[in-house]
Every structure is written in C-alpha cells, then in structure tokens.
C-alpha cells in the first residue's frame, strides 16, 4: 500500500501529510483530535538526513503541541549503508532519534508505530519498535536481520537457521512472527481509521511486549530473565 492510500484510510476526517525525499510529516484528524504524523516511504534507507528530520519533527511536536499523539508510519530498508554515513556516525544519529521518541513518551505524548510496508534493521528499531505500541498491516515485511546475514554473523549454517525459523519466530521474518514475539501488538485489517482511534484510546505507558511474547508463545524467557535481573533472583524453568 502506498502512503497516500494509507493516509486516506487512516485519516478520513482529513490530513496534511506531505512527502519530501522519502520523509513524511504532517498532521491527521482522528475522532476530532489532531495527531502528529512522521514517517518514511519508498523503502527509505535511514541516513543522517532522515534520522535528523524525524528527530526534529518529534521535538517540534513536544515543544509546540504538548501531549499531542504521534503516529510513526514505517517503510524502511534500515539504516543507509554508505561510507559517508558511517564516518559521520550514523549510529549516533539513530540513537538520537530513539532518544527523542523516548523523550516524547516521557513528556506524555502517546507514540504509535504502524508498519505499512517494510521494516528492517535499525530503521525499525529506532522508530516503530520504540513506540508505546507498534502495529502492522498484513502484507508488511518485518525483520531485523535476514537469515543469510544472520548466518554470516553467528557462524550458524543458513540451512540450520532456516530449519529453526519454521518453529521459532525469533529467527523468522514477517508480521505474524513479530506478533507472536510481542514486538507487534496487533495486525490491522478492515477499518484502519477505527483501529487507529481505538489504539490511541487504549494506549498507556506500560511496556507489555515481553508479556505479550510469553502469552503468544514467541518469547518464553524474556520476561523471566528481565524480572530476574530487576530483582536479583534466579531464573526458573521455562
């Protein structure tokens, strides 16, 4: 789905979202309420320019419109793999974006992410995945690392990783697997405007991703390990 069609379905009451060099920004109307919208399109690689543009849009919303919800529309191939960006410290720019989103949340802004096309690697981690809740459309492609790259990094044969991916969502891409792990709260179908309005109404600051992953059978130990670290206790059997 292209971003114009998505925006029309999400904001039937109207929007002024504009695109500039793969960067989306503007506002939309949801149940008579204005929300800020930022995001990317055309499988945008997140270089220093887009990372800074998104961070600026978040901080501008915090400064000019206290408490206004922020919706992040995600379509990215991950961080841009260029020597220039690496030399300029793209990791710091991505971290800055993540800190700005977290700052907005701490200032009382509800932040929702929606993967409407593609979400890969660091471009997803510092946008939709760091939001209060992240959602996806059924056709969305989501992965942090492809199996060939994972095989190179872990030295585990790709054939073995492919076999593991059949039963373990941690190794497998796709919206359904991220739903099982709790990274995606829900997959939106049907009336997207109604889905968005409900998500805004129901959102809170509690991070339920580990609990959702355990309930859905995608991450059995994450919540136990985190709780053990917090309390200094031992991890029990899965």
UniProtKB/TrEMBL annotation:
Pfam families tied to this protein: MdcE (PF06833)
Enzyme class: lyase
Keywords: Lyase
Protein's UniProt keywords contain Lyase: yes
UniProt KW Kinase keyword: no
EC number: 4.1.1.88
GO function terms (MF aspect): lyase activity
Domain of life: Bacteria
Name of this protein: Biotin-independent malonate decarboxylase subunit gamma
Gene encoding the protein: mdcE
């Amino acid at each position: 789905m292209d971003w114009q069609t998505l925006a029309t379905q999400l904001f039937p009451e109207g929007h002024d979202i504009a695109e500039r060099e793969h960067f989306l920004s503007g506002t939309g109307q949801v149940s008579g309420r204005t929300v800020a919208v930022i995001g990317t399109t055309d499988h945008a690689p997140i270089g220093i320019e887009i990372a800074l543009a998104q961070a600026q849009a978040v901080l501008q919303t915090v400064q000019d419109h206290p408490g206004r919800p922020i919706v992040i529309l995600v379509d990215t191939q991950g961080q841009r793999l260029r020597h220039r960006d690496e030399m300029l410290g793209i990791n710091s720019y991505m971290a800055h974006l993540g800190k700005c989103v977290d700052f907005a949340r701490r200032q009382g802004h509800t932040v929702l992410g929606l993967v409407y096309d593609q979400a890969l690697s660091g471009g997803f981690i510092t946008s939709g995945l760091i939001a209060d809740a992240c959602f996806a459309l059924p056709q969305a492609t989501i992965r942090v690392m492809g199996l060939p790259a994972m095989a190179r990094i872990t030295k585990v044969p790709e054939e073995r990783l492919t076999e593991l991916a059949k039963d373990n969502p941690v190794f497998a891409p796709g919206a359904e697997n991220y739903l099982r792990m709790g990274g995606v709260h829900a997959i939106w179908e049907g009336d997207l405007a109604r889905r968005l309005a409900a998500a805004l109404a129901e959102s809170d600051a509690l991070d339920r991703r580990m609990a959702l992953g355990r309930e859905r059978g995608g991450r059995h130990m994450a919540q136990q390990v985190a709780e053990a670290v917090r309390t200094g206790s031992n991890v029990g059997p899965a």
